[in-house]
Amino acid sequence: MDFFDRQWSTYRAVVDHDLMQHRALTAALSQAIKAWLAARPAGAPRARMVDLGCGDLAVMAPLLRGLPLGSYLGVDLSAPVLPRAAAALGPVPYPCQWRQQDLLAWAEAEPGPDAVDLLHSAFAIHHLSDDDKARFLRLCRRHLAPNGLFLWADVFRPPGEDRLAYVARYVGRIRSGWGVLAPEQQQPVIDHLSQFDLPPDRDAIRYAAEACGWQWQWLWQGDHQAEALAVLTAA
Ligand SMILES: C[S@@+](CC[C@H](N)C(=O)[O-])C[C@H]1O[C@@H](n2cnc3c(N)ncnc32)[C@H](O)[C@@H]1O
């Protein structure tokens, strides 16, 4: 197994054991998307969806297969996940595209003629620095159709908790509550989050979003003051 497969299989184990509460999150996401689709005016063109940091779609594929989309674009920094995502999704009655790209670069690009109706990102944006998160929020706003929806699932810090305290708390949660994973499976998660995770302060990121024209609402909160789902719409 190469480095990518080892890392990815650890993430798969985390998801399969629901250690980040993907089940409850996906149920909230599904409800939000279906309610939004149902409220679209009759005769509106089918929604164009973009998924930033789509990963292998192991979690999202069943939901995506049932959505009456106009198109789907899966974007991920990692090229090897894209064929896996395509295979997990399987045949769907709308065109799909797969693109290896940084999500910030996607936001920075000039918007094409077709605005995005449904933007989704799960557990990817927290890898950006705080300045880049704010830049991302400002730039991706230009890509969204006027009545579009941006669903952002991620890890967030409680207001006032600094990154070191967050990491220590998350590591404690893994060591005490993730016993279903062997220590040698826990350690890569701990190493990864200690090095690369930059979860935003939930109040600060909300103010940053509102300052660049978003309206922010929390849709779902996990049980651990970390995982959460926000919905952003044009203010
Ligand atoms: C933790 S996985 C989440 C995958 C999927 N969204 C899910 O919820 O199961 C994070 C994914 O985001 C991708 N990613 C991380 N940083 C990224 C970036 N700057 N631009 C695009 N993709 C990124 C990773 O390659 C990985 O596939």
TrEMBL record:
Transmembrane spans: none
E.C. no: 2.1.-.-
SUPFAM superfamilies named in the record: S-adenosyl-L-methionine-dependent methyltransferases
InterPro entries named among the record's database cross-references: Methyltransf_12, SAM-dependent_MTases_sf
Keywords, in A-Z order: Methyltransferase, Transferase
CDD domains to which the protein is assigned, alphabetical: AdoMet_MTases
Keyword Methyltransferase: yes
Domain (Methyltransferase type): residue spans on this chain: 50-150
Example GO biological process: methylation
MF GO annotations: methyltransferase activity
Top-level taxon: Bacteria
Descriptive protein name: Class I SAM-dependent methyltransferase
Species assigned in the record: Cyanobium gracile UHCC 0281
